[in-house]
Structures are given as C-alpha cells and as structure tokens.
Write a structure and sequence with these properties.
alpha+beta; Alpha-Beta Plaits; 4-stranded antiparallel beta sheet; about 25% helix; about 30% strand
Length: about 100
C-alpha cells in the first residue's frame, strides 16, 4: 500500500520532477508534487511524495528529514489526512 509523505522547507526553485528524483534514492516514488499558488504558479514551499510502501516511506523519513535539497533542509514526515489535521473551527464559524 502506498504511503504519502509531507515535505516542507522546499526551495522555491524545487520542481516536482526534482522532488521525485531526490526521493527515488529511498525507493519507488508513486507520485511527487510541489504545491503552487493558484494564480502565480509560485511554489508554496511544500509538497507531497507518495512512496510505494510504508517501509520505503519510513526509510525516506529517516534518511531525508533535515537533509538539504536545493540548498534548504527538508522537513519530511507522514502526511496527515484532511480530517486528521482539521479540528473544530469555533473561532471562525462553520467550515464551508
């Protein structure tokens, strides 16, 4: 089963292809995407990588967390689902 990773601290020059290439040293990359601004297509400084197995994902976290890519240290950890990371939004009303 594939395992999705959050990758933060990306350089604005890092591309999805560069991210994929960097993570292939830890196994088979199913997908890799740098998240960009909708209007300008500028990188938002983070992305997601999906590894083909949990073991490869754990290996990527152990090997690549805090290691540099394009001159900046990466933050690599297991991605959280949208439900996991969103909590009650009592300060701003209901979520639409």
């Amino acid at each position: 089963m594939a395992s999705k990773l959050y990758v933060g601290g990306l350089s604005y020059s890092t591309t999805s292809d560069g991210l994929r290439a960097h993570f292939t040293q830890c196994g088979t990359v199913v997908s890799a995407a740098v998240v960009t601004e909708r209007d300008s297509a500028q990188s938002r400084g983070f992305g997601f990588v999906e590894m083909s197995s949990d073991a490869e994902a754990e290996g990527a976290i152990a090997k690549l967390n805090q290691q540099p890519l394009d001159g900046k240290p990466l933050t690599v950890n297991a991605a959280k689902s949208r439900l996991e990371k969103s909590g009650p939004r009592t300060d701003r009303g209901p979520r639409l």
